[in-house]
Design goal:
Two copies of one chain form a homodimer.
Chain A (H helix, E strand, L loop, with lengths): L16 H14 L26 H4 L2 E2 L2 H6 L6 H8 L9 E3 L4 H14 L2 E5 L19 E5 L6 E5 L4 E5 L4 H8 L4 E2 L12 H7 L16 E8 L2 E4 L12 H5 L8 E8 L1 E2 L3 E9 L2 H12 L7 E5 L1 H8 L6 E9 L5 H13 L3 E2 L4 E2 L13 H22 L2 E7 L4 H23 L3 E10 L2 E11 L5 H18 L15 H7 L2 H14 L15
Parallel strand pairs in A: 2-4, 3-4
Antiparallel strand pairs in A: 1-2, 5-6, 6-10, 7-11, 8-9, 8-10, 12-14, 12-15, 12-16, 13-14, 17-19, 18-19
């Protein structure tokens, strides 16, 4: 497999041929447009500027100035990144890409960059959609991107406590591969699973597999080890503690601004043995939301609890349900879960939901296949991992296709949802004349949902980034005005800064700035992310 | 009811008469000793020093210089506090006790103290057992203790999201009283429930009712509002967020060093309708620990999962079980939980546990009494709230009676437990010639337990504080050496500082100090707690 430098995932998995035709047909039915295709440029022809810095001899072997490397580390994988890549618009590229072999190398790299005032961007899988790894600094200092991909080992497994010490640069599949012989799993499956790393998940507070309870990677952390410019930080391995403010919680979400995470002790699960799942159709979206809230507040704690609205259900699950579809799944390594599913379905019926007659999963004795049995959910799941590839295919056809997400309390959801979808529609109409907005809940809490929105509009080739930026600004304003968070699990990076700055309490910003300055006196770590570059 | 100035809780609830005789008889059977009683001194006779500061006219009405007030705010409620009170040893008392009526008063008090360089100790219920509210500063600056008891209202209830905006000074029972009409409850019941406040729980990361999942108050927080010397901080109400490091997590556990918490939006529960509980006896403690681990890792998530060791079971539940007793309880507002209890009992039987034939709780139809039905658990629960009063009665009889607690991963528990109990026994033997150490788990996690230890030894009247300090230092060393946390839910205060300083990562200490200096430039907030006084 070959990683795409310009778009999502592997080159071999790009959407082509019949799959592309089907996708374009489906999109044409929703939004009119030309949909002419465009090819990505040749990296060699980009004419990247010469690196402004060269590594000292002791670090030279770790550092690459290869144009392909530099281009592949210049952007994340947001729509605006992919489109700029397609246009060969790489205004900011790292001068060097460094690949440390161990923690000692990370220390040496930070020491060198501190001495020379070189900016350092920690890079895991590079799947940021918020400008988090883009060397877009406010000044013209050189930038070294530190790609942690070589730190990819599970170093220790504690089967008794179900935990493992894992290096930060490991990608999702490789991590699970190393845990499998111990019958353990992290069960953290973000949509980016194949193309993102543990360190990236920790630094950005990634959202994972569980729709309830353990929604963020935060909850799976036992301790974190990170290299800061003033020294190595390692918290004690603990199942819980009340000794002062949590050191780990300061690093979780720090997005490479306070230190470079090199390893972590992570809490693991045994692989689930019992599963039960199905889907529920609704005639009315408000009733579907009420049903989802009842399930979220029931203490049943489904592993999956995704409410797809009508448009999302139609596009990604091929289902016509005016009020949307709730995809429900329970799992356990210890006991049957079918009774929990049935209780959740009772709650859905109370709100007018119509459960599918099909039940996925297996029997209460733990036997039977684990796949199939729920056509709607299965179709949606299959579509889920293809979505970023579809987004890229549409981007090549001048479509604006992107997602954004938030979370809010239940009492505010109706108003926020109305405001956000209206803002999206108006902005799309203004910039493209038409467009579709979809919504699903990726995670739900007893006190509120995390809605995730999709935008599909026919853009103008050469202008789709600017068009998207206008739409994004409008929906971000709506989110901020109506009490949502600017991000539930996509992080802040550089692109969410204006709204993040308003969201976060001013005294906390002061405290965080002071903490940053203490840990990173030269201000080399990911300048411009979370905080204004000092 | 009259609050005791020198000891736990209400004067009317002190242990006297037949209850005292029974307690002393039981203790005499365990540890030999004289057990002569001593009366607390008269506050008026303490001869407290004159206040070193007087409030400006605008704040005078909020401030008390009454000796009873000052004495009652001088110490927390640790054994060493109670004994020092009994001896009239009040070396450090606040100069004034201020009782703000609203947040504006808190702002004005901090402004005044910042201007004058007066130390400020935020005070909730004063149940600290770690010197957290004791005005023991490294210099001789005046101290104003800010008692938040007047900020005791539930200001808003959001029934849809099951959340409430609550003032920080409210005590447990008064909070629940205000939530009851909405059929909601916080269900945070630390042992100190009656005599501690929401703000205190937040500032110290208190441990509550739930043995699993929502163990600390941290998990029940939606947003926090606090007054810092540089301004008011308020986080957005959110069910979950990934926007940078969590602002709330910096205040949780800050113990009054970063700001004075004035209110919070808290996540609530519906009152449980279904309950199931029983107890399980074990012949062998290692097997009991293994069974508890199996339950903790099962995903069954019992609300109660307390493993009492043989001594704890004997003293507090009147049961003879060489390997200890596991008290198990499940609850739900939504669905029957008896099947979960039965599955947990299967896991216990797999490890040689013998479940009681009795089952507490109610039927699967949700009817039936909720009390009784499990004699062992019921006896233990009844004893639970009397324990601090018993401790005081024993302290008056020159007994050393105190608790300490930690948490560690399961793989380290055997070694830590052995080291801690040995250190306790050796230290007790050295200072008193004898003594008993008990252990229970207050909370359990998939990756480790939170063991809670009790110490009972016959002291020498006049020396019991010094004797206890020697024992405490020995067990704290054992905890630190064997990978435990210096506190799972008792906080750090002043007394845990030496071990906390070693536990916390050095770069985090630097960052926290910088954050503190930024928020509290004059260094007035609880100097000496968490960090060295600047």
């Amino acid at each position: 497999m070959t990683r795409s430098w310009w778009g999502w995932g592997n080159v071999e998995d790009e959407i082509r041929g019949a799959e592309l035709d089907t996708l374009l047909d489906r999109v044409r039915a929703l939004v009119p447009g030309e949909l002419a295709g465009h090819e990505p440029p040749d990296v060699a022809a980009l004419g990247l500027p010469e690196p402004r810095v060269s590594a000292p001899a002791s670090l030279a072997a770790l550092c690459s100035a290869d144009p392909g490397d530099r281009a592949a580390h210049a952007h994340g994988k947001a729509f605006r990144d992919v489109v700029r890549n397609l246009h060969g618009d790489l205004r900011h590229v790292p001068d060097l890409v460094a690949r440390p072999r161990d923690e000692r190398d990370v220390v040496d790299l930070l020491d060198w960059c501190t001495r020379e005032g070189i900016a350092v961007i920690a890079f895991g899988g590079g799947s940021s959609v918020v400008g988090g790894v883009e060397p877009r600094c406010s000044d013209d200092r050189p930038v070294v991107t530190v790609d942690l991909g070589r730190l990819n080992r599970v170093l220790e497994v504690d089967v008794t406590s179900r935990a493992a010490r894992v290096q930060a640069g490991v990608f999702g599949p490789h991590l699970e591969e190393q845990l499998a012989p111990h019958d353990l799993t992290l069960r953290h499956f973000p949509q980016s699973f194949e193309f993102s790393t543990l360190g990236g998940w920790l630094a950005t507070r990634a959202g994972g597999h569980y729709a309830t309870l353990y929604t963020h990677i935060d909850d799976l952390v036992q301790s974190i080890r990170a290299v800061t410019p003033i020294g190595v930080s390692e918290s004690r391995r603990l199942p819980g503690s009340g000794a002062g403010p949590s050191p780990d919680r300061l690093l979780l979400g720090s997005e490479g601004t306070l230190g470079v995470i090199t390893e972590a002790w992570m809490r693991l699960q045994r692989r689930p043995r019992w599963r039960a799942r199905t889907s529920v159709r609704f005639a009315d979206h408000a009733a579907a939301v009420a049903a989802t809230r009842a399930v979220a507040q029931s203490g049943l704690n489904p592993a999956n609890c995704r409410l797809l609205d009508a448009a999302e259900a139609l596009i990604h699950a091929g289902v016509n349900a005016p009020g949307g579809v709730l995809v429900l799944g329970f799992e356990s390594a210890d006991h049957p879960v079918r009774d929990r599913l049935e209780r959740a379905l009772e709650l859905c019926r109370d709100h007018g939901g119509v459960p599918s007659a099909e039940r996925g999963g297996n029997g209460d004795d733990g036997t039977g296949g684990t796949a199939g049995g729920d056509a709607v959910g299965d179709t949606w799941r299959a579509s889920f991992l293809r979505m970023p590839y579809q987004r890229d295919a549409l981007a090549r056809h001048a479509m604006i296709a992107e997602t954004f997400e938030t979370a809010c309390t239940w009492d505010r959801f109706d108003e926020l949802h109305h405001a956000v979808t209206e803002a999206a529609r108006q902005a799309m109409h203004k910039v493209t004349g038409t467009g579709v907005v979809t919504c699903r809940f990726t995670h739900v809490y007893p006190d509120g949902p995390a809605p995730y929105y999709g935008i599909y509009a026919p853009g103008r080739w050469g202008s789709t980034v600017a068009q998207w930026d206008d739409i994004k600004a409008a929906v971000s304003e709506a989110i901020a005005t109506h009490g949502g968070t600017i991000t539930h699990h996509h992080a802040v990076g550089r692109d969410h800064r204006p709204w993040y700055d308003r969201q976060r309490p001013a005294p906390f910003a002061t405290a965080l700035t002071a903490a940053k300055t203490a840990l990173d006196p030269a201000g080399i770590l990911n300048p411009g992310v979370l905080l204004a570059a000092g």
